[in-house]
């Protein structure tokens, strides 16, 4: 693993070095080619035009005065061949035709030569650019060298700054690669671990990774919630199916057996709907949960019947009292999950006495005469896996946690009041419920 990390780091640095080296080479080649092109322009255009002007000037003066002297300066020399008399022309120039070109004079001398004809005479202008080349060096090559050195220095500084920035990225990549997801502790990255805390790019990267960690933690938490919620919520319908299977073995009459089969089929459908609801709740939003108008009176009557079959209590009486019909716009399966948990808890922790359901204008109250809860239990009753002081009954301590999470998600209000040894009262209120008193029923 260490070898792979070192290869990753060296590979990124070597790529960065290659980029800057190629950049320096490209700039150098472009600069040299530009200077060389400028030299060619100077030679082919400026020098040629200058020599053309010198030749025209000489021929103009020579036409007026045959004794006009040939050019003879430090850089420019003139020779004349009159009427095919080349005695005054150096031998290395005699064969040159009219035009503009370089001519080899000596092994280390190759001046620029301009040849022109007028009236049978031929003029040779020889331009020695040695001094001009020296001036070109001082006024061209020297500044060019300075510019190249400045470019190299700036490129080196750019490389150092880029390497510093990339080193932070490499360090961050190492931290991400070695992040321990198995521990379940989703610790976020801090700016102090990655150099300058004022670096906006580093801040953006760390913020993005921290947001990813938060979202991943949320996904994992929803998966855990789904796993434990599914295992918890499926217990009641499975108990109903189990009880009905036992009844099937006892009943011989077709009608009674058919009623049991119908009850089992309804329970299986409820299980399918329950699993679908839990899957939707495990996602990021509840947008796919269909909202329907649910009459709580009918729903609670059916759920109480199911819970009584799943948690039989011979010494416990049950009742439902209502002052009217209460309708709620909500996913029916979510309401079933909430009320099933509340009713199951009331039946489970009540050995004798009663479990009463009261339906009024604002919501539903479920009251039992069970073992009750202490002040400490009331404070922690909604924590996952917390079971309170009475651990004699089966369960995982998830029911109230699920109820509280669903109520918070849909904006319902849940109240709890309990006294140890007396009983518990759970109150669920629906802010947008519709109430129809029985006196107004048609």
Globally, the shape reads rod-shaped
How many domains make up the 3D coordinates?
A: 3
CA-CA gap between termini: 78 Å
What's the CATH H-level homologous superfamily of the largest domain? Answer: Histidine kinase-like ATPase, C-terminal domain
Query: What is the helix fraction of residues, given as a range?
Result: 40-55%
Assess the beta-strand content as a share of residues. Answer: 15-25%
Tally of helical segments: 9
- Quick one: how many beta strands? 12
Question: How would you state the average pLDDT, rounded?
Answer: 77
Main pleated sheet: 5 strands, mixed
Task: Give the name of the CATH architecture of the largest domain.
Answer: 2-Layer Sandwich
**Which CATH class of the largest domain?**
Alpha Beta
Low-confidence stretches: 1-9, 391-398
Assign the CATH topology of the largest domain: Heat Shock Protein 90
Order of secondary-structure elements = HEEEEHHHHEHEEHEEHHEEE
Structural classification: alpha+beta
Radius of gyration: 49 Å
* Main sheet strand line-up: 6-8-9-11-10
